[in-house]
Amino acid sequence: MRAPVIVSLASGTLFGAGLAVGGMTNPARVRGFLDILGDWDPTLAFVMGGALIVMAIAWVIQRRMASPAFAGEFALPDTSNLTPRLIGGSALFGIGWGIAGLCPGPGFAALAIEPAKAAAFVVAMLVGMGLSRLAP
Fold it and tell me: How far apart are CA 100 and CA 6, in angstroms?
């Protein structure tokens, strides 16, 4: 197996494990976090805060690197292209996250914990992704 494949597999596994351990695969906990005017569960604020700290450190390290260790160049997102389609998709993502209590990463991670419940979400998500390719 090539090094980038192993690194991708290890990174994905670590990410999924972090989501599961942090409770992000539990739709009830996610909905509790989003219910700021009701029975609010602040647990996920700590998960997100931890993720922000890790990412802040990663950005500092990335700025000091000439090139990535396992790729030819960095693939950094371009934040200057905010289109109505991107904003609409973001809104739909948030609405779906609030209703289902899952988003793509936790949805796939939840397949290992509650396959029957997560499968319905993952199938619907994949159908939605397919339909979005048909939209102008």
Answer: 32
